[in-house]
Amino acid sequence: MHETKTPAHRPAPYIPQIRLYQDWLKANRGLSFATYRDLWNWSITDLDAYWQSVWDYFGMQSPTPHTAVLAKNVMPGAVWFPGAQANYAQQVFRHVAPADAAGFAAVISRNEAGEHRELSWPELRRQVASLALHLQAQGVQPGDRVAAYLPNIPEAMVAFLATVSIGAVWSICAPDMGTNAVLDRFQQITPKVLIACDGVRYGGRDLDRMAVVQALVDALPSVQHVILHANLGTLDVPQNAIQSIATQVHFSGATARNDANTSVFEPVWLPFDHPLWIVYSSGTTGLPKPIVHGHGGTVLVALAMKVLHNDVGCSYAANTWGERFHWYSSTGWVMWNAQVAGLLNGTTCVIFDGNPGAGKPQGPDATGAAQPDWTTLWRFASETGVTFFGAGAAFYANCLKAGVDLSQCGDLSAVRALGTTGSPLSPEAQSWGTEQFRRIAANDAQQNIWWCNISGGTDFCGAFIGGHRELPQEPGVMQCRLLGCAVEAWNEAGEPVLGEVGELVCSQPIPSMPLYFWGDVDNARYLASYFEMYPPGHGRKPGGGDAPAEAGGVWRHGDWLRVGTKEEGGEGCVIFGRSDATINRHGLRMGTSELYSAVEALPEVVDSLVVDLEYLGRESYMPLFVVLRAGHTLDDAVQAKIVNAIKTALSPRFVPNAIFQVAEIPRTLSGKKQELPIKKLLLGQPLEKVVNKDAMANPGCLDWYVAFAKSRAGT
What is the DSSP letter of 701? Predict the structure, then answer.
């Protein structure tokens, strides 16, 4: 990989991006707003004006003008920017010359083995052009699918940009996913090309994936060409390593071209809503939903979220000089897409491939296994000069539990922002991180660390709720609803409420909402997933009120949300877990996250899961499953601490009927607790009907729950 010498930089305190945008609105539109609520209200009521301002503010380019902003306000099926053209790779390539002239890399990467690489902007462009021309030579046309089985490495970014630059549709799965899980996804989209790796390193072990790659080729008759990346570097992979397919090349060869054609290569202009990529729902039950997003809408929403709300700046802009953006993810999680989006704004992306707990052995636990090293990512950030550090909420909880001392992890003074998503971040974990950085900055003028806690989804590749550099911070509370996102909490009557917990709905379209699900006849799965709970037209008028039924329904996301508090109002938002995994005890409803916050604050508890088996009039039975720290057992004293914590934080009504110690909590590949499948299992449904093991991070743990369900059924 091309080497560059990029010094670590620490940006000086600078003007928040959302302030720059509001200054621009005032200067260029004559608009000023006294409060964020006023700004947000404008963005969701005058949709044309807001999204046109985003287009203009970020200097979006198109060789043809658009004839409207939102030409058709219907959900699903909104028509955005008709007449405009776009290409994700075009937006990235705009930054090649100025970013390189400033001396900044496009991608800085490291893996568990310590292999450090830097990819310059011109080299990124050259490799993308080489691979794009190679794909075209293989007959890849706009609309054809290119599937990838690659880890979080620069090659995945190159392959993505090359694919979409020629109008082909990208889809990726992580190599930690098993054959069946990958086939459940790729068989639905019939890819023409497969780009795969020979294996991955994870948890200190090299894992050969050649057998999986062969199985994918055998089960995907649509694949006409294979590009193989020798990721492990220790295997001599022959050119014809994949049997039963005639055309195959090595990734290094497909990206080696450097001639006049690569120099003049430009991404093709495509219709604004041309398919960009196919991402997948978690696939808890049934086949994962193959969700299609478009070029233009994805770029617009990514820029607005990344810059205005996440406050991630351009690395070569004076105001954010030296920005380095890291969000730990695998390619199986939508945060990989969010990480790549840093390139859209000319930001250096810093990526890590491997186990975030890998590193120096920390001593054995009760089973004799080495404890995870939760300092690995922090040391990586310190050595690469990361300025924005993002990870799943569970990562910070693990750091808290492990007693990580960030002052011993190198120089982290460049880090000015911490990002979280995946599940609600507990107040305890946020307070831990704030205090850690307060100590680091004790002799510095740096202000308190800023937390950018976001909640959104793979569904629309964005966030509904997130950060705001100028609003107050409160541990465990997200700062605001995002601009352009008409998000409300609705009570059981379908009325918006403030300071109360309700269903999270979005009453107006967003440009990055799915175009459709691949292969979904008449939008049946799409409609059933988000739009069936409320009558068409209800709450669909911009600014509030009903619209004609032809406008379609509101987007129901499936989360419990509270906006502000009854006592103080405010913009702060709290997610209380999935609305389909609710606890309903003695007439009181509550999201599961509140209970988790109380229980997992105890030093003895590492992880937990609760399900309420109240169903069709049965009396509620609520078991709580807990993973305890090594050396602890669920004795009377620990049980009493758990019960008291729930009584104190919530109510005696939410004390579980029984508490069980387990080895693991079942989680999806993206880290979500699998509450609903376990609930269904305990209600008597067969395992194969409620969960897809291949979509799980730890399917081996299910045996215990199956045995538990059988024992309950026999009582």
Answer: G
